[in-house]
Design a protein that fits this description.
Elements (H helix, E strand, L loop, with lengths): L15 E3 L6 E3 L5 E2 L6 E2 L6 H21 L3 E5 L2 E5 L1 H10 L3 H31 L5 H15 L4 H13 L5 E5 L1 H19 L3 H5 L5
Helix pairs in contact: 1-3, 1-6, 2-3, 3-4, 3-6
Length: 209
């Protein structure tokens, strides 16, 4: 970190910008250009960061409804289809004597996606409306939810493994349902929303206080 950086103030207020690649501070340049140290592209803030985050969050909110209501898998046994939603699958795991796995699936498939959407929405609201929230706590929440949120892909791996292992032709087969596609879109949308959000906006919202 440069010695001329004042701790407690944003780089924007000090006329400085930070390179996300090499963490080198340089003087602010209005138009996107290149870092003088590593020559990677650099800009003051991600373009339309908040708008992209909201668009992706709304997409996740829309698709999380069918992801939980519709069947995520279909079990074909003796020419009969048996649908399973995420929640019914969790109950089946509990009934089969696997409460530990059921808990993991419940957290990864239901709790984490909902928490991630809520947390990102609260942070985006606080930035947009300049709420008086602790920026450090917001950053911790953001990075924690972003890291945990990657485990939401667990359901997709489970479905893939089940289809590969239990596919026995006409006797026993497993097929992904509509909820599998919806859940995939929720995971992609929330991961993209977190990636689109510029955390520096959290500090910008505090500059007028």
């Amino acid at each position: 970190m440069n010695k001329n950086v004042v701790v407690g103030k944003t780089g924007l207020s000090q006329g400085l910008q930070l390179c996300k690649v090499c963490s080198h501070y340089s003087e602010q340049i209005t138009d996107p250009t290149h870092c003088p140290t590593c020559l990677n592209k650099i800009s003051l803030r991600k373009k339309n960061s908040l708008q992209k985050t909201w668009a992706l969050l709304i997409t996740a909110i829309i698709f999380i409804i069918p992801a939980n209501l519709y069947p995520i898998t279909y079990l074909l046994k003796n020419s009969t289809l048996y649908p399973d939603t995420i929640f019914s699958g969790i109950l089946s795991l509990v009934d089969s004597g696997m409460p530990g796995i059921a808990l993991i699936v419940f957290v990864a498939s239901i709790v984490v996606p909902l928490l991630k959407i809520i947390a990102l929405a609260v942070i985006a609201f606080s930035v947009q409306n300049e709420w008086n929230l602790d920026p450090k706590k917001q950053l911790i929440a953001f990075y924690l939810i972003d890291w945990i949120g990657k485990w939401s892909v667990l359901d997709l791996f489970v479905i893939s493994i089940m289809v590969a292992v239990f596919d026995k032709g006409h006797l026993l087969s497993i097929y992904p349902g509509l909820a599998a596609t919806s859940f995939t879109l929720v995971v992609i949308a929330t991961l993209s929303a977190a990636n689109s959000f510029d955390t520096r906006l959290i500090w910008d919202a505090q500059t007028d206080e």
